[in-house]
Design a protein that fits this description.
Strand order of the largest sheet: 3-4-2-1-5
Largest sheet: 5 strands, mixed
Shape: elongated
Number of strands: 5
Helix content: 40-55%
Bound molecules: zinc ion
Oligomer: single chain
Structural class: alpha+beta
Order of helices and strands: HEHEHHEEHEHHHHHH
Strand content: 5-15%
Number of helices: 11
Radius of gyration: 18 Å
């Protein structure tokens, strides 16, 4: 992945609202409670998406969310995300944005480790109280595994795109691997791809997207 810290600084320099926002892993008790998040600068990730995917759609709603990432907060030109492989189930001493990069660009990440930025605010104590009392960011997070619903339209759309990219053979293999032990039957003989996709649950679709969007 490109290392563009200097470019980010240039982008945010003239904009007082974004002055404090750069892409990065962040701990900020006032904003996010005890949750580790990845704050993504929209202009930077849009550029990555435009350069590699070129689908012209919104990278957050069409790629990041269907792939299992959750928007916990957003502001002018930035969005804070959590998700497996990004801020969950990760080694905090070797954080990378590869999982998000792969979902957004469809290409393997470079494995470049990033540090966590800890934001200390003068009113952090009041923030702590607000986070636990009034429901911090952690309450808003959706847990994919706890959502037994059917595959969503967005997931179907994105999976159809991915099938076209990776080819039927890889798709069939990934489909059978992902549904194993989930109650969703493997690919049937002569079953059309669209039919198979519609049999997925929201959770299995998410897993399949992660597998197919990866390297
Ligand atoms: Zn795209």
């Amino acid at each position: 992945m490109q290392g563009t810290a200097s470019v980010e600084r240039a982008e945010t320099a003239g904009n007082p609202w974004n002055a404090a926002v750069m892409s990065g892993f962040t701990r900020d008790t006032k904003r996010y409670g005890d949750k580790l998040v990845y704050e993504a600068l929209g202009s930077k990730w849009r550029r990555y998406h435009d350069a590699h995917c070129r689908c012209g759609l919104n990278w957050v709603t069409e790629h990041a969310e269907p792939a299992g990432f959750t928007v916990v907060r957003s502001g002018t030109g930035w969005v804070a995300l959590t998700g497996p492989g990004l801020t969950e189930d990760v080694d905090e001493s070797a954080l990378t944005t590869d999982a998000l990069w792969e979902a957004v660009t469809g290409k393997p990440g470079a494995g470049r480790a990033e540090a966590v930025r800890v934001v200390e605010r003068s009113d952090a104590v009041a923030g702590d109280r607000a986070a636990t009392g009034a429901g911090g960011a952690q309450r808003c997070e959706r847990h994919p595994e706890a959502e037994p619903g059917p595959v969503t339209d967005k997931q179907l759309k994105y999976l159809s795109t991915l099938v076209g990219k990776v080819g039927r053979e890889r798709f069939d293999t990934a489909f059978d691997a992902v549904v194993q032990g989930t109650g969703v039957a493997p690919r049937g003989d002569g079953e059309r791809t669209g039919q198979a996709l519609r049999r997925l649950t929201r959770a299995t679709a998410r897993k399949l997207i992660t597998v197919l969007a990866g390297p």
